[in-house]
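Narrative of accomplishments. A recurring question from our advisory board has been how the design workflow behaves on a single, concrete structure rather than in aggregate. To address it, we present the structure tokens for one chain from the evaluation set, followed by the sequence designed for it. No filtering or post-editing was applied between the two.
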């Protein structure tokens, strides 16, 4: 569903008034997210190159692919989860805006805050379980079932780290309006 800008979302950087710590954390997370997006873009291009090589290698040279599919999946998992905080910071995740025009600005602010709190609860649980999964995979030395057998801790750590960054982004989006800053 395509929609225009939401009326209660200010353009530009989040303005935090009165709290240098939160403003610094917000700027730091924005810089971190921008760097991650660059690396995730490189990972997506690498996944495309790897999969293209895999297809051409099988079709032209009848060579087996031991590592290509899994390498591409690892890159895609990393790019997907690591950029989740950036997407949330831009309010780019899927949202239903059908009620925006029907509700008062105050009701919309409350609705967005409640959605952020519910999202944080889910993402915090997901991050916690991801970290436990990554720890178990590392401690047990778990590897994938392919001939290449890369450690499963790699995608699990990327997933856990990405969800942790998303939780941090959600925490900022919850507390910034409470401190008098503009909601993004």
């Amino acid at each position: 569903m395509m929609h225009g800008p939401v009326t209660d979302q200010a353009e530009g950087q989040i303005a935090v008034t009165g709290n240098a710590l939160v403003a610094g954390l917000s700027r730091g997370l924005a810089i971190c997210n921008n760097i991650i997006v660059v690396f995730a873009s490189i990972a997506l291009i690498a996944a495309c190159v790897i999969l293209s090589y895999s297809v051409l290698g099988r079709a032209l040279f009848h060579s087996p692919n031991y590592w290509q599919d899994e390498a591409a999946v690892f890159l895609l998992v990393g790019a997907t989860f690591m950029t989740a905080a950036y997407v949330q910071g831009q309010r780019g995740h899927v949202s239903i805006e059908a009620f925006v025009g029907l509700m008062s600005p105050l009701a919309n602010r409350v609705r967005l805050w409640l959605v952020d709190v519910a999202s944080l609860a889910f993402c915090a649980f997901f991050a916690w379980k991801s970290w436990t999964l990554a720890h178990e995979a590392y401690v047990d030395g778990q590897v994938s079932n392919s001939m290449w057998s890369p450690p499963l801790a790699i995608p699990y750590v990327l997933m856990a780290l990405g969800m942790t960054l998303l939780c941090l982004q959600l925490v900022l989006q919850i507390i910034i309006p409470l401190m008098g800053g503009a909601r993004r």
